[in-house]
Design brief:
The protein has 131 residues and is an alpha+beta fold. The protein has 2 helices and 7 strands; from the N terminus they run αβββββββα.
Amino acid sequence: MSGGYLDDTDFTDSRSQTSDQRSVTDFLFVSFNSRVLALDRDTGKLLWNWKAPKGRSNYVSILVDDEQLFVSVDGYTYCLDPYTGRQIWFNPLKGFGYGIPTLATAEFHTNSASAAEIILREQKRQDQGVQ
């Protein structure tokens, strides 16, 4: 018999040992410049970093919901493992265009007010010809 039962001698746990030792509440997630970083909440130590293969923006929306980390860069949307930064899935949302995303689930949402401020700053820089 297979599947992780106590009497299954052939079973090996393939989950990351990191996820067994930590809770998602032990992390601080930081996002900017098409990147997401995971820091140890208590020490500030960098645990992992991830760069979006598609999308290039200073503003990156992130949302942790249960044991998944959702990321959206210019509308390209990803699901990451919050413990490792491994990409689980990707959806380009083809045909919807580009822009500053807001993420939400039934229980959680990101703050779109900060996105509005970043858009305004980027527009001012572009108007002034500063890159």
